[in-house]
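Hi there, hope your week has been kind to you so far. Would you mind checking whether the tokens look sensible for this chain? I owe you a coffee for this, so here goes:
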Amino acid sequence: MKKTNLVDHGFMDARIKLIDVAAFLDRIQRHEQTDDYRFHALKDAINELQTDEVGRVGRILSKLSDHSVEPIDKADIQGAFGAPKPNNQ
């Protein structure tokens, strides 16, 4: 049985996603919406891609997850924001 070349198998898909993220960040900057905490959370998470340590996906998921343990009194919306809000918001 032939061993699958993972680069051949996944490179184009990863390339497309990376270009899509770059385009998203460019749009945010062009429209001067860089003060949004999610923009900063995404950029911080992207830094993990530059590391050579295995476990990037776990560290990125952790950076983009809400780690609070106390329940809130009432939900204002039915959904998620995709990144934890800073404590002062």
